[in-house]
Write a structure and sequence with these properties.
Blueprint lengths: L2 H14 L4 E8 L2 E8 L4 E9 L8 E2 L8 H57 L4
Antiparallel strand pairs: 1-2, 2-3, 3-4
Helix pairs in contact: 1-2
Length: about 130
């Protein structure tokens, strides 16, 4: 089994997901690896190893092949998890900042519209106000 391929697929799946945690599977060499990750806790684990035909219903539980370097997998994934967690935090902060600015803009627009309605009401009721 090609360890580099599994690392690359895992990194790709983590990079494409917007959540800092999740599950995905990687198919390599008639093996299906179910991988769980949590970027906040620098955790990546191969939860399940199955062997069989790609996308079939005849998969059976198996062990990781001897040629798969699990230590290398974990060492390579750790900086990827840290970097992705930093990116996700930064994206969420930017989104919150954008949402705050948008709410403030909406509030100011509503206040301006309310003031205009107040002036119109006062003008209709008491004559020229402003």
């Amino acid at each position: 089994m090609n360890t580099t391929y599994v690392i690359a697929q895992a990194a790709l799946n983590i990079a494409l997901n917007d959540e800092p945690y999740g599950w995905f599977d990687v198919w390599e060499d008639s093996y299906r690896l179910l991988i769980y990750y949590d970027c906040a806790f620098d955790l990546v684990e191969i939860q399940l190893v199955e062997k069989g035909v790609y996308l079939s219903n005849n998969l059976v539980l198996d062990y990781l092949p001897d040629d798969f370097d699990e230590e290398c997998f974990h060492k390579a994934m750790l900086p990827i998890l840290k970097k992705r967690y930093d990116e996700i935090k930064k994206e969420k902060e930017m989104e919150e900042s954008f949402n705050y600015e948008e709410r403030e803009r909406d509030r100011r627009e509503q206040e301006a519209a309310d003031w205009e309605h107040t002036i119109e009401y006062l003008n209709r009721t008491f004559g020229l106000y402003s």
